[in-house]
UniProtKB/TrEMBL annotation:
CDD domains membership: Peptidase_M15_like (cd14846)
Organism, scientific name: Mycolicibacterium rutilum
GO biological process: proteolysis
InterPro entries with a match to the protein in the record: DD-CPase-like, VanY-like_core_dom, Zn_M74/Hedgehog-like
Name of protein: D-alanyl-D-alanine carboxypeptidase
Domain D-alanyl-D-alanine carboxypeptidase-like core, residue spans: 59-137
């Protein structure tokens, strides 16, 4: 059995992305799938039902169902739930972590705010970041009914399928636990 049969392999040729109408496509190289998989432009969010986008569609099926069910319930009371981050490649998570090290000055400081690819549940599709703040607040108050819990005290937007018997575990202070 080939390694590609066991894990998802990046394409041998990078996709070309058009940068604007009428411009030539921009090729971003063979690592594009790895270093950009899970990236969304600033101020861009996705519907929890936009499964054609890997950020949503490659979430763990149980997490995706819980988020979709919660979204329907939130919408019924006038709260729109959006996803601003979900599934990410290991390479993209490493890029975020490396950016954190540069921004915060050390690996230890970055670990408090950005999980490594080895510890991030985004890489396995078992974590989702929700927007806007009203949806975060609604999900903090109601998410346990769907199995969804805020995990980190310093990230009101980060949710995982973690409720047991309708109860969420205690908040971790940050990504280091």
């Amino acid at each position: 059995m080939s390694a590609c049969a066991l894990v998802a392999c990046a394409p041998t040729e990078a996709p070309a992305y058009a940068t604007a109408v009428g411009q030539e496509p921009l090729s971003i190289g063979p690592a594009a799938q790895d270093t950009l998989g899970g990236w969304l432009p600033d101020d861009t969010t996705l519907s929890p039902f936009d499964v054609s986008n890997p950020i949503v569609g490659w979430l763990d099926p149980a997490l995706l169902k819980a988020v979709q069910d919660a979204s329907r319930a939130a919408e019924a009371v006038g709260v729109e739930m959006r996803i601003n981050s979900g599934w990410r490649t290991r390479g993209f998570q490493q890029r975020l972590f490396d950016d954190g090290v540069r921004t915060y000055g050390s690996v230890d400081a970055a670990r408090k705010l950005v999980a490594s690819p080895q510890t991030s549940n985004h890489v396995t599709g078992k974590a989702v970041d929700i927007a806007p703040v009203e949806a975060d607040r609604w999900l903090i108050a109601n998410g346990r009914k769907f199995g969804l819990c805020q995990i980190y005290a310093n990230e009101i937007w980060h949710f995982e399928l973690a409720a047991v018997d309708g109860r969420c575990p205690p908040l971790k202070p940050n990504a280091t636990g």
